[in-house]
Design a protein that fits this description.
This protein folds into two domains: 11-160, Glycogen Phosphorylase B (Rossmann fold); 170-344, 3-Layer(aba) Sandwich (Rossmann fold). Helices cover 33% and strands 15% of the residues. It contains twelve helices and twelve strands. The strands form two sheets. The chain has a six-stranded parallel beta sheet with strand order 3-2-1-4-5-6, with helices on both faces. Strand 2, helix 2 and strand 3 form a beta-alpha-beta unit. Helix 7 crosses helix 8 and helix 7 packs across helix 12. The longest helix has 17 residues, at 20-36.
Protein backbone atom coordinates (compact mmCIF):
# COMPACT_ATOMS: atom_id res chain seq x y z
CA UNK A 1 0.00 0.00 0.00
CA UNK A 2 1.58 3.32 -1.06
CA UNK A 3 2.30 5.80 1.70
CA UNK A 4 0.76 9.26 1.54
CA UNK A 5 3.08 11.95 0.26
CA UNK A 6 4.16 14.22 3.11
CA UNK A 7 4.39 17.97 2.71
CA UNK A 8 7.94 19.26 2.66
CA UNK A 9 8.90 21.10 5.84
CA UNK A 10 10.83 24.15 4.75
CA UNK A 11 12.87 26.35 7.06
CA UNK A 12 12.81 29.87 5.63
CA UNK A 13 14.72 32.93 6.80
CA UNK A 14 13.23 36.22 5.60
CA UNK A 15 15.54 39.22 5.77
CA UNK A 16 12.94 41.78 6.75
CA UNK A 17 12.69 45.51 6.14
CA UNK A 18 13.59 48.09 8.78
CA UNK A 19 10.58 50.37 8.27
CA UNK A 20 7.48 49.57 10.35
CA UNK A 21 5.08 50.03 7.43
CA UNK A 22 7.11 47.74 5.20
CA UNK A 23 7.17 45.08 7.91
CA UNK A 24 3.38 45.20 8.09
CA UNK A 25 3.19 44.72 4.33
CA UNK A 26 5.66 41.83 4.58
CA UNK A 27 2.97 39.87 6.42
CA UNK A 28 1.28 39.37 3.04
CA UNK A 29 4.35 37.37 2.04
CA UNK A 30 4.28 35.33 5.26
CA UNK A 31 0.61 34.49 4.69
CA UNK A 32 1.30 33.46 1.10
CA UNK A 33 4.24 31.25 2.12
CA UNK A 34 2.10 29.44 4.69
CA UNK A 35 -0.70 28.98 2.17
CA UNK A 36 1.81 27.48 -0.23
CA UNK A 37 3.30 25.19 2.46
CA UNK A 38 1.42 25.15 5.80
CA UNK A 39 4.31 23.27 7.48
CA UNK A 40 6.92 25.88 6.56
CA UNK A 41 8.77 27.47 9.47
CA UNK A 42 9.34 31.17 8.83
CA UNK A 43 11.92 33.11 10.83
CA UNK A 44 12.37 36.84 10.25
CA UNK A 45 15.69 38.67 10.64
CA UNK A 46 14.83 42.23 11.61
CA UNK A 47 15.60 45.05 14.08
CA UNK A 48 14.31 44.80 17.63
CA UNK A 49 11.74 47.56 17.16
CA UNK A 50 9.76 45.34 14.79
CA UNK A 51 9.38 42.60 17.42
CA UNK A 52 6.00 44.03 18.47
CA UNK A 53 4.73 43.37 14.97
CA UNK A 54 6.35 39.96 14.49
CA UNK A 55 4.81 38.79 17.78
CA UNK A 56 1.37 39.56 16.31
CA UNK A 57 1.89 37.64 13.08
CA UNK A 58 0.93 34.00 13.70
CA UNK A 59 2.60 32.92 10.46
CA UNK A 60 6.07 33.73 11.84
CA UNK A 61 7.92 31.17 13.91
CA UNK A 62 10.34 33.62 15.55
CA UNK A 63 12.16 36.91 15.24
CA UNK A 64 15.94 36.72 14.73
CA UNK A 65 17.27 39.93 16.22
CA UNK A 66 19.47 41.96 13.86
CA UNK A 67 22.01 43.73 16.14
CA UNK A 68 23.14 46.23 13.52
CA UNK A 69 22.99 50.02 13.61
CA UNK A 70 20.81 51.44 10.86
CA UNK A 71 22.91 52.32 7.82
CA UNK A 72 26.11 50.71 9.17
CA UNK A 73 27.91 47.81 7.48
CA UNK A 74 28.76 46.17 10.86
CA UNK A 75 30.62 43.42 9.03
CA UNK A 76 31.95 41.69 12.17
CA UNK A 77 28.49 41.54 13.76
CA UNK A 78 26.99 40.18 10.53
CA UNK A 79 29.66 37.48 10.35
CA UNK A 80 29.08 36.53 14.00
CA UNK A 81 25.33 36.28 13.49
CA UNK A 82 25.82 34.25 10.32
CA UNK A 83 27.98 31.74 12.22
CA UNK A 84 25.18 31.32 14.77
CA UNK A 85 22.60 30.85 12.01
CA UNK A 86 24.63 28.01 10.47
CA UNK A 87 23.35 25.89 13.37
CA UNK A 88 19.79 26.19 11.99
CA UNK A 89 19.11 24.11 8.85
CA UNK A 90 17.58 26.85 6.72
CA UNK A 91 16.60 25.81 3.20
CA UNK A 92 15.84 29.22 1.78
CA UNK A 93 16.56 32.88 2.48
CA UNK A 94 14.36 35.63 1.03
CA UNK A 95 16.07 39.03 1.08
CA UNK A 96 13.44 41.79 0.96
CA UNK A 97 15.70 44.90 1.13
CA UNK A 98 17.71 45.67 -2.00
CA UNK A 99 20.94 46.59 -0.20
CA UNK A 100 24.27 44.78 -0.24
CA UNK A 101 24.23 44.66 3.58
CA UNK A 102 20.95 42.76 3.64
CA UNK A 103 22.36 39.96 1.50
CA UNK A 104 25.50 39.39 3.57
CA UNK A 105 24.11 37.35 6.48
CA UNK A 106 22.33 34.63 4.45
CA UNK A 107 25.39 34.25 2.23
CA UNK A 108 27.79 34.02 5.18
CA UNK A 109 25.36 31.60 6.87
CA UNK A 110 25.64 29.37 3.77
CA UNK A 111 21.88 29.10 3.27
CA UNK A 112 21.52 27.01 0.09
CA UNK A 113 18.95 29.13 -1.76
CA UNK A 114 19.15 32.92 -1.46
CA UNK A 115 16.52 34.94 -3.32
CA UNK A 116 16.49 38.68 -3.94
CA UNK A 117 16.29 41.35 -6.58
CA UNK A 118 19.35 42.59 -8.46
CA UNK A 119 20.84 45.52 -6.58
CA UNK A 120 24.06 46.97 -5.11
CA UNK A 121 26.46 44.42 -6.62
CA UNK A 122 24.91 41.39 -4.88
CA UNK A 123 26.12 38.86 -7.45
CA UNK A 124 27.58 35.90 -5.56
CA UNK A 125 25.74 36.76 -2.37
CA UNK A 126 22.43 35.79 -3.97
CA UNK A 127 22.04 32.68 -6.14
CA UNK A 128 18.35 33.08 -7.05
CA UNK A 129 18.44 36.57 -8.52
CA UNK A 130 15.24 38.19 -9.77
CA UNK A 131 15.00 41.23 -12.02
CA UNK A 132 12.45 43.79 -10.88
CA UNK A 133 10.02 45.30 -13.36
CA UNK A 134 8.60 48.33 -11.57
CA UNK A 135 5.94 48.60 -14.26
CA UNK A 136 4.67 45.06 -13.67
CA UNK A 137 5.10 45.27 -9.87
CA UNK A 138 4.51 48.90 -8.85
CA UNK A 139 3.55 48.09 -5.25
CA UNK A 140 6.05 47.24 -2.52
CA UNK A 141 3.88 44.35 -1.32
CA UNK A 142 3.78 42.88 -4.83
CA UNK A 143 7.58 42.89 -4.90
CA UNK A 144 7.74 41.10 -1.56
CA UNK A 145 5.34 38.44 -2.83
CA UNK A 146 7.26 38.05 -6.08
CA UNK A 147 10.40 37.13 -4.12
CA UNK A 148 8.64 34.52 -2.02
CA UNK A 149 6.65 32.85 -4.78
CA UNK A 150 7.39 31.64 -8.26
CA UNK A 151 7.57 34.78 -10.42
CA UNK A 152 4.80 33.56 -12.72
CA UNK A 153 2.42 32.95 -9.79
CA UNK A 154 3.01 36.16 -7.83
CA UNK A 155 -0.22 38.21 -7.67
CA UNK A 156 -0.27 41.41 -9.68
CA UNK A 157 -3.86 42.40 -8.85
CA UNK A 158 -4.46 44.15 -5.51
CA UNK A 159 -7.59 42.08 -4.89
CA UNK A 160 -5.54 38.87 -4.86
CA UNK A 161 -2.95 40.06 -2.33
CA UNK A 162 -3.26 38.50 1.15
CA UNK A 163 -4.37 41.17 3.63
CA UNK A 164 -2.12 41.75 6.67
CA UNK A 165 -3.94 41.22 9.94
CA UNK A 166 -2.24 41.78 13.29
CA UNK A 167 -3.46 39.70 16.23
CA UNK A 168 -4.66 41.48 19.39
CA UNK A 169 -5.17 40.06 22.88
CA UNK A 170 -8.24 41.55 24.64
CA UNK A 171 -6.76 41.23 28.13
CA UNK A 172 -3.60 42.99 27.02
CA UNK A 173 -5.68 45.77 25.47
CA UNK A 174 -7.56 46.27 28.75
CA UNK A 175 -4.25 46.40 30.62
CA UNK A 176 -2.91 49.14 28.33
CA UNK A 177 -6.14 51.13 28.62
CA UNK A 178 -5.82 50.96 32.42
CA UNK A 179 -2.16 51.98 32.29
CA UNK A 180 -2.99 55.22 30.47
CA UNK A 181 -6.30 55.77 32.31
CA UNK A 182 -8.31 55.55 29.08
CA UNK A 183 -11.80 54.24 28.43
CA UNK A 184 -14.18 53.40 25.62
CA UNK A 185 -17.14 55.42 26.92
CA UNK A 186 -17.20 57.53 23.76
CA UNK A 187 -16.24 56.67 20.16
CA UNK A 188 -12.51 57.02 19.60
CA UNK A 189 -10.73 58.88 16.82
CA UNK A 190 -7.00 58.22 16.60
CA UNK A 191 -4.86 60.79 14.81
CA UNK A 192 -1.33 59.94 13.64
CA UNK A 193 0.12 63.29 12.50
CA UNK A 194 3.77 62.22 12.29
CA UNK A 195 5.81 60.57 9.55
CA UNK A 196 9.24 59.08 10.15
CA UNK A 197 10.26 59.63 6.52
CA UNK A 198 10.07 63.42 6.70
CA UNK A 199 7.87 66.53 6.87
CA UNK A 200 6.76 66.32 3.23
CA UNK A 201 4.43 63.46 4.25
CA UNK A 202 2.80 65.41 7.09
CA UNK A 203 -0.61 67.01 6.79
CA UNK A 204 -0.57 70.43 8.53
CA UNK A 205 -1.07 70.38 12.30
CA UNK A 206 -3.83 73.02 12.23
CA UNK A 207 -5.75 70.86 9.74
CA UNK A 208 -5.54 67.92 12.14
CA UNK A 209 -6.74 70.25 14.90
CA UNK A 210 -9.76 71.30 12.84
CA UNK A 211 -10.73 67.68 12.22
CA UNK A 212 -10.24 66.86 15.91
CA UNK A 213 -12.41 69.81 16.98
CA UNK A 214 -15.23 68.66 14.72
CA UNK A 215 -15.12 65.18 16.24
CA UNK A 216 -15.12 66.62 19.77
CA UNK A 217 -18.27 68.59 18.93
CA UNK A 218 -19.86 65.35 17.71
CA UNK A 219 -19.18 63.57 21.01
CA UNK A 220 -15.99 61.70 20.14
CA UNK A 221 -12.79 61.45 22.12
CA UNK A 222 -9.53 62.02 20.23
CA UNK A 223 -6.21 60.30 20.90
CA UNK A 224 -2.90 61.38 19.35
CA UNK A 225 -0.35 58.62 18.69
CA UNK A 226 3.24 58.85 17.52
CA UNK A 227 6.86 58.52 18.51
CA UNK A 228 8.87 60.88 20.67
CA UNK A 229 9.72 62.80 17.50
CA UNK A 230 6.00 63.59 17.11
CA UNK A 231 5.47 65.09 20.57
CA UNK A 232 5.82 68.69 19.38
CA UNK A 233 3.27 68.41 16.58
CA UNK A 234 0.87 66.46 18.80
CA UNK A 235 1.10 69.08 21.55
CA UNK A 236 0.50 71.78 18.95
CA UNK A 237 -2.68 70.04 17.83
CA UNK A 238 -3.80 69.55 21.43
CA UNK A 239 -3.13 73.19 22.29
CA UNK A 240 -5.28 74.34 19.35
CA UNK A 241 -8.05 72.16 20.80
CA UNK A 242 -7.71 73.73 24.28
CA UNK A 243 -6.11 70.61 25.72
CA UNK A 244 -9.20 68.45 25.16
CA UNK A 245 -7.29 65.72 23.33
CA UNK A 246 -5.27 62.84 24.76
CA UNK A 247 -1.68 63.15 23.52
CA UNK A 248 0.22 59.88 23.84
CA UNK A 249 3.11 60.61 21.47
CA UNK A 250 6.37 59.39 22.95
CA UNK A 251 4.60 57.79 25.91
CA UNK A 252 3.73 54.44 24.38
CA UNK A 253 5.87 51.58 23.19
CA UNK A 254 4.93 50.22 19.77
CA UNK A 255 2.96 47.22 21.17
CA UNK A 256 0.95 49.61 23.35
CA UNK A 257 0.21 51.86 20.37
CA UNK A 258 -1.04 48.82 18.46
CA UNK A 259 -3.31 47.82 21.34
CA UNK A 260 -4.72 51.33 21.74
CA UNK A 261 -5.33 51.76 18.04
CA UNK A 262 -7.20 48.45 17.94
CA UNK A 263 -10.13 49.91 19.92
CA UNK A 264 -10.57 53.00 17.72
CA UNK A 265 -13.63 53.55 15.57
CA UNK A 266 -11.67 55.69 13.12
CA UNK A 267 -8.04 56.51 12.31
CA UNK A 268 -6.71 59.44 10.30
CA UNK A 269 -3.02 59.10 9.47
CA UNK A 270 -0.30 60.29 7.17
CA UNK A 271 1.40 57.68 4.98
CA UNK A 272 3.40 56.13 7.81
CA UNK A 273 4.03 52.97 9.79
CA UNK A 274 1.07 53.70 12.07
CA UNK A 275 -1.16 54.05 9.01
CA UNK A 276 -0.21 50.54 7.88
CA UNK A 277 -0.78 49.23 11.41
CA UNK A 278 -4.29 50.72 11.42
CA UNK A 279 -4.97 48.98 8.12
CA UNK A 280 -3.70 45.66 9.50
CA UNK A 281 -6.04 46.08 12.47
CA UNK A 282 -8.95 46.56 10.04
CA UNK A 283 -9.88 49.93 11.60
CA UNK A 284 -11.81 52.38 9.35
CA UNK A 285 -8.97 54.48 7.99
CA UNK A 286 -8.45 57.77 6.15
CA UNK A 287 -4.92 57.63 4.74
CA UNK A 288 -3.41 60.97 3.74
CA UNK A 289 -0.98 61.08 0.82
CA UNK A 290 0.91 64.00 -0.70
CA UNK A 291 4.57 63.50 -1.59
CA UNK A 292 4.15 59.72 -1.84
CA UNK A 293 2.06 57.47 -4.04
CA UNK A 294 -0.83 55.28 -2.83
CA UNK A 295 -0.19 53.16 -5.90
CA UNK A 296 3.19 52.21 -4.41
CA UNK A 297 2.48 51.73 -0.68
CA UNK A 298 -1.30 51.67 -0.21
CA UNK A 299 -3.11 50.49 2.89
CA UNK A 300 -4.07 46.88 2.24
CA UNK A 301 -7.33 46.73 4.21
CA UNK A 302 -10.72 46.95 2.45
CA UNK A 303 -12.03 49.55 4.92
CA UNK A 304 -10.05 52.64 3.96
CA UNK A 305 -10.21 55.73 1.78
CA UNK A 306 -7.33 57.75 0.33
CA UNK A 307 -7.19 61.50 0.98
CA UNK A 308 -5.05 63.08 -1.72
CA UNK A 309 -4.73 66.34 -3.64
CA UNK A 310 -2.88 65.50 -6.84
CA UNK A 311 -0.90 68.41 -8.28
CA UNK A 312 1.65 68.63 -11.08
CA UNK A 313 4.71 68.02 -8.87
CA UNK A 314 3.38 65.12 -6.81
CA UNK A 315 4.37 62.53 -5.91
CA UNK A 316 7.95 63.79 -5.54
CA UNK A 317 9.08 61.20 -2.91
CA UNK A 318 11.24 63.85 -1.23
CA UNK A 319 11.62 64.21 2.54
CA UNK A 320 11.06 67.97 2.31
CA UNK A 321 9.03 69.81 -0.30
CA UNK A 322 11.66 70.75 -2.93
CA UNK A 323 9.56 73.75 -4.05
CA UNK A 324 8.86 74.83 -0.44
CA UNK A 325 5.12 75.31 -0.97
CA UNK A 326 3.82 71.90 0.22
CA UNK A 327 0.73 72.45 -1.92
CA UNK A 328 -0.08 68.73 -2.08
CA UNK A 329 -0.88 68.93 1.65
CA UNK A 330 -1.91 72.57 2.00
CA UNK A 331 -4.61 72.23 -0.67
CA UNK A 332 -6.08 69.11 0.94
CA UNK A 333 -8.30 70.94 3.43
CA UNK A 334 -10.17 69.65 6.50
CA UNK A 335 -13.67 69.69 4.90
CA UNK A 336 -12.45 67.22 2.28
CA UNK A 337 -11.10 64.85 4.91
CA UNK A 338 -14.23 65.20 7.06
CA UNK A 339 -16.35 64.29 4.03
CA UNK A 340 -14.25 61.15 3.58
CA UNK A 341 -14.85 60.33 7.26
CA UNK A 342 -18.59 60.34 6.60
CA UNK A 343 -18.13 58.05 3.61
CA UNK A 344 -16.58 55.44 5.92
CA UNK A 345 -19.34 55.65 8.54
Amino acid sequence: MPTAKRATVQRILVIGPSWVGDMVMAQSLFIALKEQNPQALIDVLAPAWTAALIDRMPQVNQLVFAPFEHGKLSLLKRWQLARQLRQTPYDHAIVLPNSLKAALVPALARIPKRTGFVGEQRWGLLNDIRRLSKHVLPMTVQRFLALGLNPESAPTEKASIPIPQLAVDDQQVDSVLDKFDLNRDKPILVLCPGAEFGPSKQWPAHYYAAVAAQHLESGWQVWLLGSNKDRVVCEQINTECQGQLTSLAGLTQLPEAVDLMSVAQRVIANDSGLMHIAAALQIPLIAIYGSTDPGHTPPLSPNHVIAQRTIECSPCFERDCPLQHHRCMQELEPPQVLALCESLA
